[in-house]
Each structure stands twice: as structure tokens, then as C-alpha cells.
Amino acid sequence: MTDDTVATPGAAIARLDPDALVSLEEERDFLLRSLEDLEREYAAGDVDATDFAALKDDYTARAGAVLRSIAQRRMAKAIVAPARSRGRVFAWIGLVVVIAGLSGVLIARGSGTRGAGDSATGDPIRDTRQLLSDAQQAAAARDYEKSIDLYTEALEIRPGNVEALTYRAWSNVRAGNAAAAATDLEAAIDLDPKYPDARVFRAIVYATAGKFDKAHEQLVVFDTLDAPPLMDQVIDSQRLRERVALGRVESKLLVADPPPFAGVGFTLDDLFLAAQQLDLDGRVADELTLYAQMLAANPKEQRALAYQGWALARAGVAQKQTALLTRAVDQFDKALAAKPGYADALVFRSFTYQFGLSRSADAKADLAAFDALADKPAALATLIETYGLRASIIASLGTK
Prior knowledge:
Helices cover 74% and strands 0% of the residues. By secondary structure, the chain is mainly α.
């Protein structure tokens, strides 16, 4: 190989600029604030309907793209070199930041504006909206006590306001009062069982308390609702499903002589999500145990084959063990036999050929097969570019 900067996954990781993630997070916060401001300007009549629709679509699309980029960058880093078990800590730190912005966007849908010196209008609906807007601003400023007081004032005007209950609960979570949050979220769900925000926050509170079965129940209901995309992005970017799945699976299946997973109420999806979280936490042995259980139930389960192979490949590169790399390629081959054109297996095998076995021609062929797919997962495309796979193959073969 002629390009030492991309000679191994480890070298590629060293090239990952942490400032890039910071920049993405700053852009995310800017776009979420812009959406909030736009909603308020429209409610005040300062923006016409045509401009509002165009700007909202633009900001929403850009915010979604940035959120996906953040999630993909984190996933890519985890895929190439799983970190030691600090993933959960950073996930929760990130969650506070994301929800701080998203709560403003969601509440601003129904919020009016009021200047610092303005007084109530006498219109209960408008006064409630103004209080919600003020409460959101206080929460964004991390003045949770003020935020809670303002939500309480709004609830005194309109006791059945589900948004006020839901986001007073979230301010209580961030203020460290989970018990008060749980009470408000139960009340919000009783009033409107189809309000998705309350279901997500209730799942988060349950997960934080280690009540993973109850968190799972909330996510099951959430999946039946017409939820805004931003709430799905909160779940995805913070790996809530993965963490909940691991919490449910661990005590029953990561034990000596585990029972068949279906017999204790789990699905292949549950095991795969849990294994993905184990990968992020750096618990590779437990991750492989879950893949083995999936394959015992279905030897052609392509996800288990591909990701078991990927774990073996990373270990083979790190330990310079050709036997592990050969086993990994065998798993990728089986995954592609089970599902021809499976994007994950093609990309993982290309990485293994290039960085583990120095088979650049084979790596190029797999990358070309991925490029030819009609549906190329964005996370895999990010992985390829972030860690220099394409550049390394070109450098090795001396071709374009």
C-alpha cells in the first residue's frame, strides 16, 4: 500500500476529526432554533404561508440530514473500532442536548410569542401558548425551576394541556426529579394515549430507572402512532431501542445455559438490537453470543452472519490473526448467499479484504457491487468515505 494514512482501520480512526462532530452538533442546534423562530414568526403573522411552508421544509430537511450525519458518524466510529463501555454516558449527554432543542420545536407548533414586558391577553388559549413558549425558552436556558413554574401556570389555566404536562415532566427529568416526571407523563398519556412525545419520554424515564420491559411497552405503542419525524430521530440518534433491547435481553440470555430466546418472549430483532448496543459498549464476546443464538434459530440470518463476521474481522485486524479474518470472510460469503446484494456484507467484506488481507482487487469488486445497488444505506456510504476505503483501494491498485 502506498497511502499510509489509510493503511489500517486504526489509522483511519486517527484521521477522524472530533471537531467535525462538534460542528455538526452546532449546526443541528442552529437549525432547531431556526425552526422554533420560524414557527413563532408565522404564528405572529410576520411570515406568510407560502414562505413559511418553504422555509419549514428546508429547515426540517437540513435538520434531519444533520441528525442523521451525527448518528452515522457515531455509528461509523463504533463499527470500525468499538469504544470501551462509555457509550451510554455519552448517549445520555447527547440526549439532553437534542431534546433541549427538539422540545422547543415541538412546543413552538402551538406557541405564540410574548415580549419580556408583555402581559397576558385574557384569552386562555393564547395565554397558555405564550406560557408554553416562555417555559420552553427557560428550559433551553437550563432554568428548569422557572420552566416548571411556567408549565404549572399554564396547567392552572388549562389543566388538560398534554403538551404542558409532557414537557413539565421533561424539565423535571432534567432537574433530577424523575418521580414528578413519571406522574406528569402518566397523566399526559391518560389524557391523550396517542401523543407520541409523552410515549418517548416515558420510555426514557423507564429506561433510566432500569425498567426496560416497561420502556419497551411504550416504544411498541409509539410505533403505532403518527409521530413527527423528529421524535423518531431522537430515538434513533440516541440508540434508545438498542439500549432497551439490551436491558431486556441481558438478564435472560447472557447467562450460563440460556434458554431459547423465543421461549422467553424475544424476537430476532430484539437480539440484533441488543447485540448492536453491546458492540458500541465494547462487549464483543457477549455480542457474539447473541449472534450465535440468532444463528442457532436461523443459520441463514444474514444480519447475524454479517455482523458476526464484522466483529471477527475487527478482532483479526487488531490481533493480526489471519485465521479470524478468513472466518470473517466466510461469514460474509454466507450472508451474501442468504441475501445476494446485502449491502452491509459487501462493505464489511471490502474493508476486510483491503485492510486485513491485502486483497485490493477483491475489495474493489465488493465496493463496485455496493456502488451498483439501487438502495445504498447512508451509514455505510459514510463509513466508506470517513475511513478512506475507496482512497486506500485506489492507492493500492494505482487506478481510478
